[in-house]
Amino acid sequence: MQQITSPAFFIGREEKGLISFGSGQPDLPPPKEVFKVLPHYHAFRYGLVQGQINLREDLSKEYPGSTKDDFIITNGASEALDLSIRYIAKHGGKKILIHRPYYYAYPKLVELAGMKPVFTELVAGKIDIGDFEEKFKQCDGAIINSPCNPAGTVQDHSIMRAIEKLSRDLNKFVISDEVYKDIIYVKNKYQMKGQKIIRVDSFSKTYDMTGYRVGYIYSKNKELIQDAINIKNVTSLNTSIIAQQMAHAALKAPKKYIKEHLKIWKERRDVMYEGLVDLGLETWKPEGAFYILASMKNPTKVMHDLYYKHKLVVYDGNWFGAPDKIRFSYAVDSEKIKEGLKRVKKYLESKK
Question: Domains plus CATH for the chain?
Answer without folding.
Answer: 7-28+256-350 (3.90.1150.10), 43-251 (3.40.640.10)
